[in-house]
Design brief:
homodimer; globular; carboxy-lyase activity (chains A, B); Metal_Hydrolase (chains A, B); Amidohydro-rel (chains A, B)
Chain lengths: ~375, ~375
């Protein structure tokens, strides 16, 4: 296979900045960082939801220390990372505190990235870029959110925004947010939509299944609901240039997209509101390639490629387009190996899945896109390197 | 394309038997059938959940009249239907009433099928077969459920059981149900797992999206959770010959199956309990082909075909096996056309999706399997016709 020179770019990698970790340590209810002891050893644990199984998860320097991030990247051959705060962001804070902390954390993340080493072999690029935060909490003024977007525009290494699914309390399909989408679209900031809450955990029953059900199912369900609600509310019709990146390959949206289209066709209240068949909008979205299986990624790519055929007025399939909207990611520092190992199985399985996708396995240019070039294009950094 | 003589068999088609409709009419809270009037016209409406959007859906003879079912089948070229009670089955009844009604409804459904016309061109077969009901409600004795299974074994046209996801209150992964799975497996009855409750509707927000979100997302999420919980609890390890048919092509299970496997690998409490990688179990399941899109069905088929590679100890991909576990269905009488039409778009889109699946479009024997022969084999009727 011909070699194409391209960076490996990780678009799904998290950090708890020291300022954020300090905020969590000062809290007495979830989300919080607490000292956990079993009499023999004491460690810090992160509890992101009350009643979380196993009393939360061990947390350490890999969550905040930049050197650990860079070492992780070096080990896995990752040249550039777009780092985002991990959930639950500022969701739990009162509006004024959320506003202040967003401003400070965005400055901190800019510095975290701006002072990172250059990306070796990719002239003019840094190793680290970031997704900033907005104070998306109840009772915040929309004008305050817009101010934060203005601030983010002034931070050259912040190329996007990570957000959960609650908006300012009523979800992302709340019409009140239209000026926010408008400002984000104008600023060309990429929105990374990421889950935190899952679905009501009573659905998962009483058996002890550790974190499996909320993480494997609840997380992708939440993302699927959020982006579906965005589609149904017409946000993608009103802001067609908005660039939304979906965590975990869009959750279940691709597999349920034809069912969604069929249900809409049978419900005139929604059908009459939308410009296109629901499947069209999948071609407007970006998907991280964090699905752990090549058949999954191939399928996501196909639902992107077929999207144009569902444009109102008609269109044709372009089988190459799918691989232009999938982007490699790791979910670091989550899913660390259970046993000491040089490389993380969670990362290796995502890399292997990309490389063995049908139609991509034999096309180095498609692999180069998913592994790195799509990210450079999406974040407007491509022309800096490839002129 | 060579013609292969095969019936078209619908495995996902519902009935509210007259006795069941009468039970719903006598009720004053959901689920119920009520008279709805807007001053101009009066109609019966079915309210399956309290607070359902649009005050429920219009209901009429297509829900209970056998002639309407047969006319629907004739119009769409369906030769044989495996009819099941629609949700919420007996879930809302006290144990003694559930037991009595299960017995009576199972007898009624046997008669509904036994007296149906012969399937033209398929010697010895009827047009109608059925899925029976079990009294799966809280406080029922397991021995009572077993008795009902014994009764179903004596009804020659009842070939399976339809069930929701609650079991006897704690879900299908409740170990108390082990004797039930054992009896069902021994009786060779097919279990059709079907959603009713969706997920907590607060996740769907405040915008008026009709029935779209609960039906397009909530339903498949519920099925996905239920079958995942069955896998995690070891039911498929303990009862490897159990034949489970999943509604709506397994919901989101195929797309989330590699993520599920990865999460399990990172959670020893579950990993140590299971015999195989989570993806292995998809090859043990049956999926209706009610997904409305050919890429979706192709993908489901691939996750079935790859399953054997995830067997503990290893195995090889058999690309032909996927099409042996997908089965045509319609979801009649739900999703009727909004405007009078000879054929239902919901049915036509499922037929078209099957016929244009990659790898199936050019293979008449695979189409014949999905459209009908898989069902004859699954329900032990194949050898009656093809000897």
């Amino acid at each position: 296979m011909a070699n194409i020179r391209h960076p490996i770019v990780d678009v799904h990698t998290h950090v708890y900045l020291p300022r954020y970790a300090a905020e969590l340590r000062a809290r007495t209810s979830a989300p919080r960082i607490l000292n956990w002891t079993n009499g023999v050893k004491t460690e810090e644990r992160l509890l992101i939801l009350d009643g979380e199984p196993s009393g939360g998860r061990p947390i350490g320097p890999q969550y905040w220390d930049r050197d650990e991030k860079l070492e992780f990247m070096r080990r896995h051959g990752i040249n550039i990372s777009f780092v985002s705060s991990a959930n639950p962001w500022l969701d739990f804070l009162p509006a004024d505190r959320a506003q202040t902390l967003a401003h400070e954390l965005n400055n901190n993340l800019e510095e975290y990235c701006a002072t990172s080493p250059p990306a070796e072999g990719f002239s003019g690029l840094k190793t680290l870029y970031g997704f900033g935060l907005l104070p998306l909490v109840p009772d915040v003024e929309v004008s305050t959110i817009i101010q934060t977007i203005e601030h983010l525009k002034s931070l050259p290494h912040i190329r996007g925004i990570i957000m959960g699914t609650k908006g300012i309390g009523k979800g992302l399909d709340d019409n009140t947010l239209d000026p926010v989408w408008d400002a984000i679209q104008a600023a060309r900031l990429v929105v990374f939509i990421h889950p935190h809450y899952g679905v009501d955990s009573t659905a998962f029953g009483e058996n002890d299944n550790g974190h499996v059900l909320p993480l494997a199912l609840g997380f992708p369900f939440e993302t699927t609901i959020a982006v579906t609600r965005l589609i149904l509310s017409g946000v993608l019709d009103r802001f067609p240039d908005l660039r939304l990146l979906l965590a975990h390959s869009g959750g279940a949206l691709p597999q349920l997209s034809s069912r969604l289209a069929s249900c809409i066709q049978h419900d005139p209240i929604v059908a009459n509101r939308l410009k296109h068949d629901a499947r069209y909008y999948l071609g407007q979205l970006y998907f991280d390639a964090v699905a752990y299986g090549s058949e999954e990624l191939t399928f996501v790519s196909q639902t992107i490629s077929r999207a144009s055929t569902f444009k109102n007025g008609g269109g044709t399939v372009d089988p190459a387009v799918g691989s232009t909207r999938l982007l490699f990611g790791t979910d670091h520092p989550f899913f660390p190996p259970l046993e000491a190992s040089q490389k993380w199985p969670s990362v290796e399985s995502n890399l292997a899945a990309i490389r063995s996708m049908a139609g991509v396995d034999s096309k180095p240019e498609h692999q180069a896109n998913i592994l790195g070039l799509n990210a450079l294009r999406l974040f407007d950094l491509h022309d800096q390197v490839y002129t």
